[in-house]
């Protein structure tokens, strides 16, 4: 039996694996396929958010967010200067980052007759492309 047999349920996505906190009743994990970031969000960000990337050699980005409810999706702009967080189907919160800290926050609601379908596709591709 060789070593590969021991990893029957192991999926290698990169030669540099990213280790992150397990999903549980307090922690949700999100993956940003554009930046290859892994977000571990604890208690909606109130207890902290840790962002790791397989290409980062340094310390992971760690910060806290205010309690505005559970996070449905989360994503950085390609330059990692703006964080978008979707907590409801009808608005997206934005946080500007300066020196790896939240500098300012604002939100963008959808029109009353519209619904934000998905943060990862249609919304952010138009805002950050």
Characteristics of this structure?
2 helices; disordered C terminus; 8 strands; four-stranded antiparallel β-sheet; 129 residues; mainly beta
Kindly describe this structure.
This protein is 11% helix and 37% strand. It has 129 residues and is mostly beta strands. Strands 1-2-3-4 form a four-stranded antiparallel β-sheet, with no helix packed on it. The radius of gyration is 16 Å and the shape is globular. The termini are far apart. This is Regulator of MON1-CCZ1 complex N-terminal domain-containing protein.
Q: Outline of this structure?
A:
The chain is mostly beta strands and 129 residues long. Helices cover 11% and strands 37% of the residues. The strands form two sheets. It has a four-stranded antiparallel sheet with strand order 1-2-3-4, with no helix packed on it. Strands 5-6-7-8 form a four-stranded antiparallel sheet, with helices on one face.
